[in-house]
Structures are given as structure tokens and as C-alpha cells.
Write a structure and sequence with these properties.
- With 354 residues, the chain is mainly alpha-helical.
- It has a domain of 230 residues.
- Helix content is 70%, strand content 5%.
- The chain has 14 helices and five strands.
- A three-stranded antiparallel beta sheet has the order 2-1-3, with helices on one face. Strands 4-5 form a two-stranded antiparallel sheet.
- A hairpin with a 2-residue loop joins strand 1 and strand 2.
- Helix 2 runs antiparallel to helix 7.
- The radius of gyration is 23 Å and the shape is globular.
């Protein structure tokens, strides 16, 4: 038994621990749902928790594995959400089965986001550091504003589109609005649920681990560690950056489809720069490069404000949330402080400190 346990590679052991952690969390949630021990508020948060975890894990591929700071997750998520919702609304009658329609919407949303990721990545990935962050943040804002300006409808004469107002579309009175500008998309079928969202999260983690431990992942990490050395041994910097950026965009687009199919109304204003910064906070707090850390941070930071809502500090929950967030950031980033703290604790256990 000892020999077999030692034969497991560290990377495989790390990924197995993450898989087990996810399965245990899923089983606990299902038990609580079956026993009726979970509030309606918590049930409504189950799908968003999976969405945020997918976004955090996908962004970690760019920030943690590639080593580039990107703030475009909200833009990619918006592209996936709009394309997936538009497809479902158009095909709800032609493909009534949600088990067939929704997977197609997921793939379509992910592919559209990946295409935009490649198109944006070709010129943008030549930048590095703060410059890349600013440009990707601007990209997300551009996408959000474009989606908020689109008026799309259809009638017996076909599709009508405008970037000004509904009256400029010249659509018949009996026409159907598909995208109503800032009001977004209404009537998206609620095809996503916790089980589907968890399965997609699990697949995302599996894909991410396989990417990190593959030959491509090792090439990407070599670029992160030493760009000049990686280029000197023949690694195509642009190619591997684009692969990572496209995969990150694809997963963010899939998360957007899950998000859009969990609500009846979808508005572009939901995908502002605050969303991108929030996902980046998940990655940084959970540990840059740590996939399980990103999942835990996404779940914890999403739950804390909601758990504080019904307490005595409910009116000031965001203040306490900010204090907790700052404290966690300081603790996770200050190695000297942690060493002193754990050293003090160990001394107290030994009786060396009175």
C-alpha cells in the first residue's frame, strides 16, 4: 500500500484532492436540499456560486499559469451570455428539448467568446502587465456598451436591427423583440440548474488541470517564468499566449451562458468592470495559480455578504465584508506575519510563551 501511494504523482494527487473536494461539497448540498435544511436564498445562490467558480478557475489560467494580468472576463462572459440566450430564444420552438438545446447554447456561447478572445488577443497580447490589464478592461466596457445599444427584432419580413432605438427598426406591429437595448433580453428559458452548473464546473476543473499539466501548459509556464529563455529554445510565445487566452475566454463564455439561463432577464449592465475586478479578487485571494484556492475564494467571498445579511450587522454587512476581505488579503500575502503568528501559536502550545 505504501509503495502504491508513493507511486502517485504529486500533480495527480493534487488534482484528485480537488475532485474529491468538489464531489463532497456536491453531496453535502444535495443532502441539505433533500432534508430541507437550506434556505431559499441559499438555493438561489447555488448556480451563481458555480458560475463565479468557473470564472475564477478560467481567469487563473491567464493570471496564474500564463502570468498576464487580464480584466476582460466580464466582456467574454457578456458575449457568451448574449449569444447563448439569443440562440435559446430563437430555437425554443424548433428545439423544445432543453437537454438538446442547452448544450448547443453552451458550446455556441463558449465558441463566440473564444473567437473574440483570439481576435482581441492577437494585437493585445503583445502588451504586458498594466498595459494589458487596461486594454482588456477597456475591451470589456466596449462589449458591454455595444450589447446595451443593440435593438434586434424579427417579424414576417425577417430580422431588424438598430443601434439607436426601437422606432428606427421599422418593424411590424406584431414583431418580436429579441434584444431591447439597455433592457436586454427577456424570456430566456431557465435551462440551467445547480446540477448542470456543477457538472460544468467539474469539467472546467478537469480541463484546467489537464491543460496545466500538459506539454502546452508547461510551455505556457515557461513563458511565465522566463520569456526570453522560453523563446530561445523555440517556444512560440504568441501561439501559446493565444491558446491560453482563447481557453480562458471559452470558459468565461460558457459561464455566461449558465448565468443567462438562470434568470428570465439579461442586461448588459451586469457585466461591468466590477465583475472583472471581482473575479480577479477571487484569483488573487485564493492564490495565484491555485485552482482549488480560486474555487474556495469564489464561494467564500460570494457567501459572506449574504450570510451577514440576517445578522445584527446586516445594515453594515458590506463594511464588514470589506474589512474581512482586507484582512484575508493581508494575511494571505504577508508571509512574515503568518510565520510569526504560527510560530507564536506553536510556542504557546509548548509552554514557551506565557
Amino acid at each position: 500500500m505504501k509503495k502504491s501511494s508513493k507511486s502517485i504523482k504529486p500533480n495527480t494527487k493534487k488534482s484528485l484532492i480537488t475532485y474529491i473536494m468538489l464531489v463532497v461539497a456536491f453531496v453535502i448540498v444535495q443532502i441539505m436540499l433533500a432534508a430541507g435544511e437550506m434556505s431559499y436564498m441559499m438555493q438561489d445562490l447555488l448556480v451563481p456560486l458555480c458560475v463565479y467558480a468557473i470564472l475564477a478557475v478560467s481567469l487563473n489560467l491567464t493570471v496564474g499559469i500564463l502570468g498576464e494580468l487580464s480584466l476582460g472576463q466580464a466582456g467574454f462572459m457578456c458575449i457568451g451570455a448574449y449569444s447563448g440566450s439569443l440562440f435559446s430564444n430563437l430555437m425554443e420552438t424548433a428545439i423544445p428539448e432543453a437537454m438538446i438545446r442547452f448544450p448547443i447554447a453552451l458550446l455556441l456561447g463558449g465558441i463566440c467568446a473564444a473567437i473574440f478572445g483570439i481576435l482581441i488577443g492577437i494585437p493585445v497580447l503583445r502588451l504586458r502587465g498594466d498595459y494589458l490589464a487596461i486594454v482588456t478592461l477597456a475591451f470589456g466596457e466596449i462589449i458591454k456598451n455595444i450589447c446595451a445599444s443593440i435593438y434586434l427584432g424579427r417579424d414576417a419580413n425577417g430580422f431588424h436591427i438598430s443601434l439607436k432605438s426601437v422606432t428606427d427598426m421599422n418593424m411590424a406591429a406584431d414583431g418580436e423583440m429579441l434584444i431591447n437595448g439597455a433592457l436586454g433580453i427577456n424570456g430566456t428559458p431557465k435551462d440551467s440548474n445547480f446540477i448542470i452548473a456543477f457538472i460544468i464546473l467539474f469539467i472546467t476543473v478537469v480541463v484546467s488541470y489537464n491543460f496545466v499539466y500538459s506539454r502546452t501548459g508547461r510551455a505556457v509556464m515557461s513563458i511565465r517564468d522566463n520569456r526570453i529563455a522560453a523563446e530561445s529554445v523555440g517556444i512560440n510565445i504568441t501561439k501559446y499566449k493565444l491558446i491560453t487566452f482563447a481557453l480562458t475566454a471559452f470558459l468565461a463564455g460558457v459561464a455566461g451562458v449558465i448565468y443567462s439561463h438562470n434568470f428570465s432577464t439579461l442586461q448588459a449592465s451586469k457585466f461591468d468592470y466590477n465583475m472583472s475586478i471581482l473575479v480577479l479578487v477571487f484569483v488573487v485571494l485564493g492564490g495565484i495559480g491555485s485552482i482549488p484556492g480560486s474555487i474556495i475564494a469564489a464561494i467564500a467571498l460570494t457567501l459572506i455578504p449574504e450570510l451577514l445579511r440576517d445578522t445584527i450587522v446586516g445594515d453594515y454587512r458590506m463594511l464588514f465584508y470589506a474589512i474581512i476581505l482586507i484582512s484575508m488579503m493581508l494575511f494571505s500575502s504577508n508571509k512574515t506575519f503568518k510565520d510569526k503568528l504560527f510560530g507564536l501559536v506553536s510556542k504557546k502550545k509548548k509552554g514557551e510563551v506565557k
